[in-house]
Amino acid sequence: MSRSHGKDTRVLVNSAHLSGSIAGWHFEHQRLYADASNLLSTGEQWHPGQLSGSLGISGHFNAAAGDIEATLDTARTTAAGLLVTIFAETPAIGSWAFFGEGNVSALDYPGAVKDLVKVELTGTPNDGVDVGVTLHVLASETADGNSTNVDNTASSAGGAVGTLHVTAFSGFTGVVFKIQHSPDNSAWSDLITFTTVTAATWERKTVTGTVNRHLRGFWDVTGAGSATFAIAGARR
Fold it and tell me: 64-73 — which CB contacts under 8 Å span 24+ positions?
């Protein structure tokens, strides 16, 4: 049995790696169902509806530039909102990743005389929250490349969701990040292509249709420099 300890998890919010200021998180994946019972039913019947869910993080107040307070306050006050990706075990290619994008519904700042000031975020995701896999752990790259594949053992037909967090960027004219898929771990095609990156940023994208058996992260750089980023993907 493979277990995960909370201390080994990591949290990215928009273009910031906030694990050093976060003490806990929660993530809830849901799908709404409509009552489809009728007079001929032998029991209750339910029809699947929209994806739903919730997410939250709690941590220690830190007003330093780029840390938890600045990141969450910007997410609260701008239309860009909030993209949270939680790596639910020690990050590695293929390890579990939870993510959602939406709005800040509540920010609380509890304080006590004998404790650090805390920050507690409650987020309301749009389009539900997803359970997926890590396709590139948060790390720096300086040249074109791709990650090793993640084998789902079979294709799926419900589309996919991908998230990209770029926490540091320098030197490059631009970088194109993609999630690619393959039926055989040999012939690869593009599944999700993120907007060309020229600075620290974040993005979530969805696609519909068939997703082949294998997934991997891919990046194509222009110029000389470095980028620190993480990629995650989920099937639907």
Answer: 66/16, 67/16, 67/18, 67/21, 68/13, 68/16, 68/18, 68/21, 68/22, 68/119, 69/119, 71/13, 71/14, 71/16, 71/18, 72/13, 72/104, 72/107, 72/119, 72/121, 73/107
Task: Label residue 64 exposed, middle or buried (CB < 10 Å: 0-12, 13-18, 19+).
Answer: exposed
Element (H, E) at 59: strand 46-60
- Longest Cα–Cα distance of the chain, Å, equals 68
CA atoms within 13 A on the CB side of 51: 15
**Count of domains for the chain:** 1
Q: Which residue positions in the chain have pLDDT lower than 50? A: 1
How far is Cα of residue 11 from the mean position of the Cα atoms in its chain? 9
pTM: 0.93
- What is residue 105's predicted lDDT score, i.e. its pLDDT? 87
> What pLDDT does residue 40 have?
93
| pLDDT of amino acid 123 | 87
pLDDT tens digit string along 150-171?
A: 999 999 999 999 999 999 999 9
Q: Is residue 12 part of a domain?
A: yes
At residue 140, the pLDDT reads 98
- Structural domain range at position 176: 6-34+50-235
Is residue 89 one of the residues assigned to a domain? yes
